[in-house]
Specification:
Blueprint lengths: L14 E9 L2 H14 L7 E6 L3 E4 L17 E3 L6 E4 L3 E7 L9 H16 L7 E2 L6 E3 L2 E11 L2 E9 L34 H20 L4 E4 L15
Parallel strand pairs: 1-2, 1-11, 3-4
Antiparallel strand pairs: 2-6, 3-5, 6-10, 7-8, 8-9, 9-10
């Protein structure tokens, strides 16, 4: 996709807020994203949140509880309003949430999915990890093994939720579910695909967010930068509440 013009009346795009949220309960990040998207106006800044969640299974809007094959009290199951089926979040997994007014970047839902996928693909390449997206099953894969999952919600032309990349996470909880609704789908993580064992989530947050900014800048034909700050609609640490 080539550069596009920003719609008349849209605010300048010089800076996006980069918010290093860190560890946060999923339900509170979910509620904070929805609140910010519901309350934002035409000049509200766009934000990119970098987070990690405590162990949690999340169900998309139309997800079936049947895809949670083994339910135990140690990992809650939380309902959410994104697209997609069931997935797992936990420590060692980078979760990037783009809270974007899509018109500013000439994007729709499908093209945002592609931008997020390709941002991850490009960020994996320096580690010698050859990854690719699959148009029939959103996400990023390494020889058929899923390394990043994606689920979005578009509301009033603005995006929230996002993409989750397995860096050094414990993958065993994926064995309790049908990941993304696919029975037997293999999942993988960066350190099992050749990345250094001491690779951190914070380092991957830097790489993926920088690649995302580069792609957004290309779409607009403008120079963009991040301003680091706390989220405008700050999430709070708390316990999860099962669905």
């Amino acid at each position: 996709m080539g550069p596009v013009s920003v719609a008349a009346g849209e605010p300048p795009l010089a800076a996006l807020h980069l918010c290093r949220v860190g560890p946060i309960a999923y339900s509170h990040a979910r509620d904070a994203m929805a609140r910010y998207t519901g309350e934002r106006g035409g000049v509200s800044p766009d934000e990119v949140w970098l987070v990690e969640h405590p162990p949690v299974f999340t169900l998309g809007l139309n997800a079936s509880h049947d895809h949670v094959r083994v339910a135990r009290e140690d990992i809650p199951v939380v309902q959410t309003d994104r697209g997609g089926q069931v997935t797992y979040h936990g420590p060692g997994q980078l979760v990037l949430y783009p809270l974007l007014a899509l018109r500013r970047y000439g994007l729709g839902a499908r093209s945002l999915v592609s931008v997020l996928e390709q941002s991850v693909v490009s960020s994996l390449a320096p580690f010698g990890i050859e990854a690719a997206a699959d148009p029939s099953a959103p996400g990023v894969y390494v020889q058929g093994r899923k390394i990043a999952s994606i689920g979005l919600r578009i509301r009033r032309g603005c995006s929230y939720h996002g993409i989750a990349l397995n860096v050094n996470a414990d993958l065993s909880p994926f064995g309790r579910i049908n990941p993304c609704g696919y029975q037997g789908l293999e999942v993988t993580r960066m350190i099992d695909e050749g990345a250094p064992r001491d690779l951190t989530v914070a380092r991957m947050g830097d790489l993926v967010s920088a690649e995302l900014l580069r792609r957004l800048a290309y779409n607009t034909g403008q120079s963009l930068r991040y301003v680091e700050r706390a989220p405008t609609c700050a999430p709070r640490a708390h316990e999860e509440h099962p669905a």
